[in-house]
Here is the input.
Amino acid sequence: MNGKPATQALLIEDNPGDARLIQETLRAIPGRPFEAQAVSTLTEGLERLRGETFALVLLDLGLPDSQGRDSVLKVRNLNPDLALVVLTGLNDERVAVEALQSGAQDYLIKGDYQLGQLGRSLRYAIERKQAEIALREARLNEELEREAERQRIAMDLHDGVIQDIYGVALSLETMLGETSGDSQSFDQTIERNIEQLHEVLIDIRRYIFELRPGRFTGNLEADLRNMAQQFESGSDIRTVVTAAQALPQLDGAVGVALFHIAHEALSNARKHASPSQITISATGTSDLLLLEVSDDGTGFDTTTLLPDRHRGLRNMAARAASIGATLSISSSPGKGTSIRIELQVVRPSTGWSDGQVA
Here is the structure.
């Protein structure tokens, strides 16, 4: 033993022999063992979950008072944030897959317990549930931020773009009503109106970029290039993308998070840094990805507390944490800002048994 406290688990198993074997096996896991408290019915298990805290539930799918998917749903409904691994026999893979579809993190085949693999499997189940919770919270926070941003944009459109368009229309109406005047003055007025309309178009493109970030198609390099092109056309800020020819293959949720981090970084730079150029860099190996968004704008002092106007940085940090990435910020006044995301690309593999699914 290495002295680390055991991870507390609840074992819901009606067979006393299987329960003892599982408890003994969990205690023998090297590194950080699991201490499982056992109950024999789902009713008892739900009662324990109401009054105690556990990191993990191991749930037999064949209990005296509940069977299969119904047991999973009852545990999930009581505590949706709890990591759940189901226990099944060799011939119950179909039931186990249904349990996974109902919210379990994975399943174990009874009797097929190899200590090293078992420990990794259970810890992975806990970590995956924690990542799921972090992602859900990040999405909720993002939605709240987006709603506030929509309201701000609506006010800006009303007070800015709409008023500008109204001013152009009023100027043109005045010109139509004039019966005299020299052609040079007439031409100058037309040119001013055209310039103002071009500025309005730039503003509208900027609002479209903020309101519609696009979507991750599965090709990070191509998506970043499309995003940069849209951003540059709507902001008049030179935006350059450098990407390795073969970036790591990404899980859909991971790719979406990185895509939105890059989008947030571009919007942040335009709003706060007044840059003349932004560079997006994506490089990596088969198991490591580095994404960096750098600008040559005003920069800021990273040692000071961030004001509310830098909530975009907090959003990016939350998204990075939700996928297990590391986000770092390098900036100083007058020196621009660089936002760097480092991600270890992991191919999820439970390794519990030859017949199971991830």
